[in-house]
């Protein structure tokens, strides 16, 4: 079951109010592939609390002068690390339970 933080139920206007980021800037981060809101049938963007946290991290890095392309590379690196850790953990769990048979 998904955490409440991952449920995409927040509109861009509320994200704007919570983060102080303009709707234009939020859409720009989406265009750059840094954030991935869901869309309703009518095309309304929906964000999660996790998305809001990510947007705040992106905004902080931008204030430090980091380019969006570098932010994206860092995000991809972190995702690969996380995926690798999960894969290694699954392998360890499988090895452990296969030995017990």
TrEMBL record:
Keywords per UniProt? DNA-binding, Repressor, Transcription, Transcription regulation
The record's listing under SUPFAM superfamilies reads: Putative DNA-binding domain (SSF46955)
The cross-references to InterPro entries, in alphabetical order and at most eight, read: DNA-bd_dom_put_sf, MerR-type_HTH_dom, MerR_fam
Residue ranges annotated for the HTH merR-type domain, each copy included: 9-77
Give one Pfam family, short name only. Answer: MerR_1
Organism's domain of life? Answer: Bacteria
Example of a GO MF term = DNA-binding transcription factor activity
Q: What is this protein called?
A: HTH-type transcriptional regulator TnrA
Native source species: Oceanobacillus picturae
Per the UniProt record, the lineage of the source organism begins with:
Bacteria, Bacillati, Bacillota, Bacilli, Bacillales
């Amino acid at each position: 079951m998904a955490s409440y933080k991952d449920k995409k139920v927040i509109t861009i206007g509320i994200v704007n109010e919570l983060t102080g980021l303009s709707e234009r800037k939020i859409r720009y981060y989406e265009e750059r592939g840094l954030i991935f809101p869901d869309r309703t049938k009518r095309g309304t963007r929906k964000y999660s609390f996790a998305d809001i946290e990510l947007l705040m991290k992106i905004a902080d890095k931008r204030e430090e002068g980091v380019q969006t392309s570098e932010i994206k590379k860092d995000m991809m690196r972190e995702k690969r690390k996380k995926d690798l850790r999960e894969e290694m953990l699954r392998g360890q769990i499988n090895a452990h339970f296969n030995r017990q048979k």
